[in-house]
Amino acid sequence: MHYYSHNIADYRKDTVHLTPIEHFIYRSLIDWYYLDEKPIPLETETVLRRVGLDSKMLKDLENVLNDFFTKSKDGYHQKRIDMEIREYNLKAASNRTNGKLGGRPKKTQVVIENNPSLTERKGNHKPLTINHKPLTINQTSKSSAKAAIDNGFDIFWNSYPRKIGKDKARTLWKSKKPNLEIVLKAITWQVNSKSWQDGFIPNPSTYLNQGRWKDEQPDEGKPF
Description:
By secondary structure, the chain is mainly α. The chain folds into 2 domains: 8-77, Orthogonal Bundle (Arc Repressor Mutant, subunit A); 82-117 and 128-214, no CATH class. The chain has 10 helices and 4 strands, in the order H-H-H-H-E-E-H-E-E-H-H-H-H-H. The chain has a two-stranded antiparallel ribbon with strand order 1-2. Strands 3-4 form a two-stranded antiparallel ribbon. A hairpin with a 2-residue loop joins strand 1 (70-72) and strand 2. The radius of gyration is 27 Å and the shape is elongated.
C-alpha cells in the first residue's frame, strides 16, 4: 500500500506520552508496515537498521513496539493495520474481477423516435414537427449479470475464513444478491473481531442467510 489515512486527533491522543524520537520510530514503523504489507520483523537489529537507528536507541524502539504492537511468531502485528491491508487487498481483488467483466454494468439509453423529421413543405403549409419522448431501456444482459454474481461469490468464498457447504452458500448468494464490496468490508473487521478470533466463525451459508454482513462493527478505537 502506498497510501493510508491518518487521524491526527486519535494519533495525538494515543501518543501524547511519546518522546520526539519515539514519535519518529512509530511513524517510521507504520509507513514500513503499510508499504511492505507485512508485520514488523522480530529481529531488532534488522528493525534498527531499516528505520535508521543505532543501538543506543534500542530502548526507544522497544517502548514503541510494546505500546502499539502485539508480538507474534511472524513479527509484531498491529490489528488496525492488518485490517486495513486486508480490506485493501480484498477491494483490489474485487476491482480486478469487475475489470475482467468490462467494468460495472451500465445503463444504456436507446432513443426511439417515430417520424423524426419534419413533414415536407407543400404549398403554404407550415412544416409540422412531431416530438416523441425518448425511452430509457436497461439493456444489461442476463448472461453478464449471472457472470457478475458467480464471480462475486467466488471472491466471497476465497475471502471467507471458513470453507464448508459451498453449494448451499452459492445458492444463498444468488438468492440474497448482497453487495460484494459491503460484504468484503464486513468480513475484514469480523475476521479480527474477538468472537471470530476465538473460533466462533459461522458457516458461510449461515452468514449469508442471516445477513451477518449487516452486523454493526464494534468501536475498537483507532491507534492513529
